[in-house]
């Protein structure tokens, strides 16, 4: 029986690794687009979780500092196969872009790839994927006028005030309105998700997160070690980021450029390269680490910048499940879920739409790709390939 369970567990881990690696190879367009790819793969196609569980996981990731899409991916892996499943899901989704960016740093640094036609095509793919995700999520999460109004509030606020703290403030206000408007709300169907993590493990993860945050700067000063300093800089940057991967860029620049670890030119060249690869934007750390200390530096920087996200999501998941199952909290979660729809629509317009749909031909390509995904039901990887080819062809028009 134990052997059968262990084979079943191994099979699940292998399945998570294969699916997450494919997503890591094909998910272009930043965190909002990644949430669209995850929704398509894990909720629509594989049905590993229902719409509400997915929306709640996204809401939790929005609350926590760190890369939201990576935290959602880790959470899905945890729900599927425990802590090891979360680790495997993270590795599969992150490793392709880490390898690509370390290679960029070692071999291709200085090449101008930021304006290539195929990259523009991949940005248009991001428009299509996010639009499709919003259509699916809005149907379930904003079915009545009150929640549509909350989504509108989130949309307008995040468009007009684009700061790192606006998103967190909007979510807190939406939670308050949801609590007030829906505290008497009763759902016909009960729903729940299982997070196979002991609360003792979660508490250890949270304690470790804060211990590293406060102790690493002290160890850095005491030892004077270059490697500890490198780890501390990237760990602190990963710990303090609210509002998505783009916010980590100024933090990393302040940490690295004034110290002379990375030149301004190398920093900006790496940012261009990061836009060209799939996966989370936080893998920019792999490029920077490789510029500083070769491939070993790339790996250390990657672990350091993602470790806070991993510790926080593992630490918060079991308590989040208990909170969202509380009848008094359900209304607040409904408000937050509605706000997430508004935030996604806001991100669809800016920066995704404004940086991608620049001419009528771009919109035409987006319409074709949308039809391929929604009506012809072609797999996402085929949309990605078609988008890259289409973007290349647009340069000849």
Question: How is this structure best described in words?
Answer:
The protein has 397 residues and is mostly helical. It has one domain. The chain has 15 helices and no strands. The longest helix has 41 residues, at 68-108. The protein is globular, with a radius of gyration of 21 Å. The N and C termini lie far apart (63 Å). The model has no long low-confidence stretch (mean pLDDT 85). It is found in: Cell membrane. Belongs to the chromate ion transporter (CHR) (TC 2.A.51) family. It is a multi-pass membrane protein. This is Chromate transporter. Its main location: membrane.
Protein topology:
Layout: H1 2-26, H2 30-45, H3 51-63, H4 68-108, H5 117-141, H6 145-160, H7 166-182, H8 199-223, H9 226-239, H10 248-256, H11 264-275, H12 284-324, H13 327-356, H14 360-374, H15 380-394
Helix pairs in contact: 1-4, 2-4, 2-5, 3-4, 3-12, 3-13, 4-12, 5-13, 5-14, 5-15, 6-7, 6-13, 7-13, 8-9, 8-12, 9-10, 9-12, 11-12, 14-15
Key words describing this protein structure:
397 residues, mainly alpha, 79% helix, 0% strand, membrane, cell membrane, transmembrane, transmembrane helix, Chromate_transpt
The averaged pLDDT comes out at 85
| Beta-strand percent range | under 5%
N- to C-terminal separation? Answer: 63 Å
Instruction: Count the domains.
Output: 1
Please count the helical segments. Answer: 15
Radius of gyration, whole Å: 21 Å
User: What is the structural class?
Assistant: mainly alpha
In one word, what is the shape?
globular
Low-confidence stretches: none
Helix content: over 70%
Give the SSE order as H and E letters: HHHHHHHHHHHHHHH
Biggest sheet descriptor? none
Beta-strand segment tally: 0
Oligomer: single chain
Keywords: Cell membrane, Membrane, Transmembrane, Transmembrane helix
Subcellular location: Cell membrane
Transmembrane segments: 83-106, 118-138, 150-181, 201-219, 226-248, 268-290, 297-320, 332-350, 357-375
Membrane topology: Multi-pass membrane protein
């Amino acid at each position: 029986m134990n052997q059968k369970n262990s084979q079943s567990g191994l099979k699940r881990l292998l399945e998570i690794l294969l699916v997450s690696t494919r997503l890591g190879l094909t998910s272009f367009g930043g965190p909002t687009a990644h949430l669209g790819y995850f929704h398509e793969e894990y909720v629509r196609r594989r049905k590993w979780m229902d719409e509400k569980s997915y929306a709640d996981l996204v809401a939790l990731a929005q609350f926590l500092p760190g890369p939201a899409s990576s935290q959602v991916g880790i959470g899905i892996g945890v729900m599927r196969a425990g802590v090891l499943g979360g680790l495997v899901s993270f590795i599969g989704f992150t490793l392709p872009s880490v390898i690509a960016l370390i290679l960029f740093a070692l071999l291709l640094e200085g090449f101008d790839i930021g304006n290539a036609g195929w990259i523009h095509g991949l940005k248009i793919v991001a428009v299509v994927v996010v639009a499709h995700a919003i259509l699916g999520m809005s149907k379930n999460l904003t079915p009545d006028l009150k929640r549509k109004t909350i989504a509108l509030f989130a949309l307008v606020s995040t468009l007009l005030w684009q700061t790192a703290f606006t998103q967190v403030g909007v979510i807190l206000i939406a939670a308050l309105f949801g609590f007030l408007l829906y505290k008497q709300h009763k759902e016909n169907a009960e729903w729940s998700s299982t997070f196979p993590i002991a609360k003792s493990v979660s508490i250890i993860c949270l304690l470790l997160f804060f211990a590293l945050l406060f102790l690493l700067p002290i160890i850095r000063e005491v030892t004077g070690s270059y490697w500890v300093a490198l780890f501390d800089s990237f760990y602190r940057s990963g710990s303090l980021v609210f509002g998505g991967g783009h916010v980590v860029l100024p933090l990393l620049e302040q940490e690295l450029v004034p110290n002379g670890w990375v030149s301004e030119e190398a920093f900006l060249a790496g940012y261009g390269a990061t836009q060209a690869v799939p996966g989370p934007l936080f893998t920019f750390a792999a490029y920077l680490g490789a510029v500083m200390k070769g491939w070993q530096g790339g790996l250390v920087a990657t672990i350091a910048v993602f470790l806070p996200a991993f510790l926080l999501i593992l630490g918060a998941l079991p308590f989040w499940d208990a909170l969202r199952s509380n009848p008094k909290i359900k209304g607040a979660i409904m408000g937050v879920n509605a706000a997430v729809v508004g935030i996604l629509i806001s991100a669809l317009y800016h920066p995704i739409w404004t940086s991608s749909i620049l001419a009528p031909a771009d919109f035409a390509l987006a319409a074709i790709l949308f039809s391929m995904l929604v009506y012809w039901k072609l797999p996402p990887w085929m949309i990605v390939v078609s988008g890259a080819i289409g973007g290349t062809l647009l340069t000849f028009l």
